[in-house]
Amino acid sequence: MLKMHNIRKSYRTDTIETHALRDFSLEVNEGEFVSVTGPSGSGKTTFLNIAGLLETPTGGQYLLDGQEVGNLSDRERSHLRNEKIGFIFQGFNLIPDLSLFDNIDVPLRYRGFNAKERRRRIEKSLEQVGLSARAKHLPAQLSGGQQQRVAIARALAGEPRFLLADEPTGNLDSLMARQVMELLEFINQWGTTIVMVTHDPDLARRAHRNIQIVDGQVSDLRQNIAADEAAIA
Amino acid sequence: MIGYYISLALRSLRRTPILSALMVAAIAVGVGAAMTTLTLNYMMSRNALADKDDVLYAVQLDNWDPHEAADNPSEMPWEITYKDAISLLRSDIPTYHVAMHRWGGPITLEDSTLRPYTAQARVTSRDFFALFDVSFVYGGTWAGEADNNAVFQVVLNKSTNEKLFNGENSVGRTINFNGAPFTVVGVVEDWHPSPKVHDLNNGDFMKSADIYIPFGLHRVLEIQTWGNTNGWKPEKIESYEDGLGAEYVWVQYWVQLDSAEQRQRYEDFLTGFIQEQKSQGRFPRPLKFGLSKPSEWLVLNEVVDGDDRMLNWLSLAFLLVCLVNAVALLLAKFLRKAPETGVRRALGASRSAVFSQHLVESGCIGLAGGLIGILLTLAGLALIRQLSMGYMDSVASMDWLMMLSAIGLAILSSLLAGLYPAWRISRTNPSIYLKTQ
Ligand SMILES: Nc1ncnc2c1ncn2[C@@H]1O[C@H](COP(=O)(O)OP(=O)(O)OP(=O)(O)O)[C@@H](O)[C@H]1O
Ligand SMILES: [Mg+2]
């Protein structure tokens, strides 16, 4: 599904060069639910942005669904993003002056569906997250957990194969966080591959696999588990 | 997709009403100022004779002071003397030729309740209507002899015929003009070219004649032109006849020459005529005459002068200043929406989709600015009409072409103004705006 080999990403400002990712290699299989943890500033968001084709790596190779995406044009990358990838952010990132209905409509517009098909998908995805009755509401009229469910509905409406979530529960209390997590697990059971960045070790453990990023690199997994167990003990 | 972009644009404009109003105002004011001056200049430089620009010529003869050329860009008098007009009318080379000048006087009707009023008249030879393509509603022009002998006939324009005879076919009826009875021989369409290209001597944008009377009536009516009379040498004028024989110029002269060959023959004729006059002691200056097409005639007469053109540029410069303002406002507005744009990018909008969306938004602002700009232009032109007290009525008005131009100018301007901000926002890295809020 996703295969990264020796990906590098550096940000250059006038004075300093930050290496956000260094020799970053990772493989995620179809249908997996992978959690990503690591200290702040270690490169987790950078990894998701590259995986989601929002940013281009400085070097290295990235295959999405077997397709080399390094040399694609912006239009092709946007098309892939629209069709194959769903994003969920910590800050929900709903568009404040659009109703829930119109928010979920956004990716479908860029997909070029007709009005009937868009309506069908919007209604279906709102139903999946249990917010059908709120279609006409504005985001500000919902609780944080509800807003994040709308964001998930928006990510699902295009029926992506690949869901990227950056601390989706970071702004939620534990009850709502659990609800969102259950929703993601449910989605994953239906076949969507999920990569989720989280700071919450309990949620991280519920994934099929946990990877840890330290200093822009995937750190050795066994070592991590040992460290984790040491921490628990 | 364009429909989606338009609905997004309207939503976005509603979300920031004050900023939007400022942008619309910037464009409206710029377009209003530019279109007011452009309209004036456009209307002032129209050529009513454009259809016959290739075959009509204003005739000038240089009978001026041997020591000093006539004081205008052509360095020849604009008009010719009465006696030269009579001589030129004898030529049979031109397809049509017209000697004419402005006149006027009171009109009355026998057995009518109509109150006498002053009519604008044109004293002219019979070819006037054919040469200037003024078409007849009833009847036709007078017979050729009326250009040389006193024949009391008149051609009315449609409005005058409406006023005097309720628009009926008045051929054969009689009107009193300047105290003499005239028989109506024809009624023509109203003809008021603006600028008055056929007679640019008094008021380029005034109305033209209501009635037309034959050129052969000067002696019997002792007609004095209501137009300009110019001379360069002191002459003793003791009788009307002395005036007709003097070197004073006050007659406009036009010819229609349909081919180069015909024009050549006419030039030879004019050369011969001036040489003959020189041998009689007239035309003391080097031999010179002028044949100007209507378009050249307008330029020569400086109907639109350098100042007016300068004003055009100034108003466009002002529009540019307004646009620079609009660019700054658009940039501020677009950057404020950058987080939303980041979300759209993440959800699959390409750079070009973002660019188009913002350009459409600029275009909507331009359209609103254009519509308000037209209102401002109309207000500006109304003000000019008010200030010029009727003198500019025919030019200080907008036709459809200018209205469309105003909208076009506004949309074009706002698209231009939106180009950079839209490009800028489409290039921003979306990930920056997706960070935790
Ligand atoms: N646009 C940018 N310009 C410059 N440096 C950047 C940029 N984005 C990220 N970085 C740097 O790259 C490194 C990785 O950042 P990243 O956002 O991926 O960390 P993270 O693991 O997501 O951290 P957190 O857990 O706090 O969200 C950091 O040092 C950060 O300062
Ligand atoms: Mg992060």
Automatic annotation (TrEMBL), chain A:
Residues 2-233 form the ABC transporter domain. Keywords: ATP-binding, Nucleotide-binding, Transport. It comes from the Bacteria. Transmembrane segments: none annotated. GO terms for molecular function: ATP binding. This is ABC transporter ATP-binding protein.
UniProtKB/TrEMBL annotation, chain B:
Residues 314-430 form the ABC3 transporter permease C-terminal domain. It is found in: Cell membrane. Coiled coil: none annotated. The chain crosses the membrane at residues 21-44, 313-335, 365-388, 400-423. It is a multi-pass membrane protein. InterPro entries: ABC3_permease_C, MacB_PCD, Macrolide_Exporter_MacB. Keywords: Cell membrane, Membrane, Transmembrane, Transmembrane helix. Residues 20-264 form the MacB-like periplasmic core domain. This is FtsX-like permease family protein. It comes from Microbulbifer harenosus.
